[in-house]
């Protein structure tokens, strides 16, 4: 049996890259027109993909590619 808690997304796959591109495009175009529920669903998808949410990116204008790990997850600095 597969332990689903240990399954990780492989963002290197072409399909996953394309999915991320499409979701990013959708969010760029329609974020301001989405309902709160729609925004919440998109944020949930980003978390499922282990990617930063829209608000995390907006609140970090200085994010660079080097701030993201191999899976595109924001590397948080420990205080």
Give an account of the 3D structure:
This protein has 79 residues and is mainly alpha-helical. It has a domain at 34-63. Helix content is 44%, strand content 0%. It has helices at residues 14-30, 36-48, 54-58. The longest helix is centred in the first third of the chain and has 17 residues, at 14-30. The chain is globular, with a radius of gyration of 14 Å. The model has no long low-confidence stretch (mean pLDDT 77).
Topology, element by element:
Blueprint lengths: L13 H17 L5 H13 L5 H5 L21
Structural key phrases:
79 residues, 3 helices, 44% helix, globular, mainly alpha, 0% strand
Largest sheet: none
Helical content class: 40-55%
Output mean pLDDT.
77
Tally of helical runs: 3
Could you say which structural class the secondary elements and strand pairing correspond to? Answer: mainly alpha
> Low-confidence parts lasting 5 or more residues at pLDDT below 50?
none
In total, how many beta strands? 0
Cα-atom radius of gyration: 14 Å
One letter per element, helices H and strands E, the order comes to HHH
End-to-end C-alpha gap: 38 Å
Shape: globular
Strand content: under 5%
């Amino acid at each position: 049996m597969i332990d689903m808690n240990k399954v990780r997304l492989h963002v290197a796959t072409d399909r996953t890259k394309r999915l991320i591109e499409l979701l990013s495009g959708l969010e760029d175009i329609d974020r301001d027109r989405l309902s709160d529920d729609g925004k919440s669903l998109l944020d949930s998808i980003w978390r499922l993909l282990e990617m930063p949410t829209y608000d995390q990116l907006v609140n970090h204008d200085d994010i660079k590619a080097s701030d993201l790990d191999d899976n595109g997850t924001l590397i948080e600095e420990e205080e």
